[in-house]
Amino acid sequence: MPQYLAVAKLVELGGFSRQALLGGTRAADRARFADVLALLKLSAQAHLPVNQLSGGQRQRAWIAMILAQAANVFLLDEAVNHLDIRFQ
């Protein structure tokens, strides 16, 4: 279940579709994951399991996973639900 994954691993799952079959995670991908965590102010929580985060931090972790996909378009339903005002 994703709630028991560390935040960094959850974000890394977002980039899974871009990985080569046997190549693993590339350095550029790891840099993008770190940038996304920094952007959403989750770098300090990267080692924590998702279930230990507050509701707002958890929502930001899921958004970080989505941003890690580096897609051109995102369709989100109530994406700012549970976020603190400053992150909305």
Number of helices: 3
Order of helices and strands: HHH
How much helix is in the residues?
25-40%
What is the molecular shape?
Answer: globular
Output the radius of gyration: 13 Å
Distance, first to last CA:
27 Å
**Strand residue content:** under 5%
Number of strands: 0
Q: What structural class do the secondary elements suggest?
A: mainly alpha
Profile the largest sheet: none
> What does the oligomeric state look like here?
single chain
Q: Could you report the average pLDDT, rounded to the nearest whole number? A: 83
- Residue stretches low in confidence (pLDDT < 50, at least 5 long) are none
What does this protein look like?
With 88 residues, this protein is mainly α. Helix content is 39%, strand content 0%. The chain is built from 3 helices and no strands. The chain starts with 6 loop residues before the first helix and ends in a 21-residue tail after the last helix. The mean pLDDT is 83.
Task: Quickly describe the structure.
It is built from three helices and no strands. The protein has 88 residues and is an all-alpha fold.
Write the layout of secondary structure elements.
Blueprint: H1 7-14, H2 27-39, H3 55-67
Helix pairs in contact: 1-3
For this entry, give a set of tags:
single chain; 88 residues; mainly alpha
